Amino acid sequence: QQQVKQSPQSLIVQKGGIPIINCAYENTAFDYFPWYQQFPGKGPALLIAIRPDVSEKKEGRFTISFNKSAKQFSLHIMDSQPGDSATYFCAFLRPTGNQFYFGTGTSLTVIP
Amino acid sequence: DAGVTQSPTHLIKTRGQQVTLRCSPKSGHDTVSWYQQALGQGPQFIFQYYEEEERQRGNFPDRFSGHQFPNYSSELNVNALLLGDSALYLCASSSGPIFNEKLFFGSGTQLSVL
Fold this sequence. Notes:
Chain A has 112 residues and is an all-beta fold.
């Protein structure tokens, strides 16, 4: 069983705030690190992803920060909006693998 | 362009029964993976099908079985249902079985075992 630690379990922020969600992993063989967003009643959807050869990636209001030596990576949501309220999952994939390992999820609520 | 479609959306079964869930992959995709998502948890990999064969399997008992058809659609079968099998079952499709970064999920089938 791959060890994936995601925190916090839940998060409440005001509109415009910058929620930060963290993930830690143990297996250094992983080399693809996506974040998925899931709304109630829907399947997860790919939000943004990073490879360990870069330390940061931005796509719109979403930023991944990656710390390879600490085996951690984080999702930052800039100028958060009520529509960002969802559950966020970090995930990992090995280079030769074909299965994703998911974190336990973070429930984000953005208050108007 | 239809995405990944799953049926049924909801299902209620009793312990000991058998269930079949269905999935049609996104157009252009040939690989189907199945995940189980328990309430409040992240998805867990069950298995993956490519070229009508099971390519990889997660830590699930052989009560869980599957099939892939020539049109790439897939079925997940669960025998001898247990209460603990109650979960959201997600189908994900991709192009090719290895290192398939672009994984597209369906909305899932919510299975309740009473």
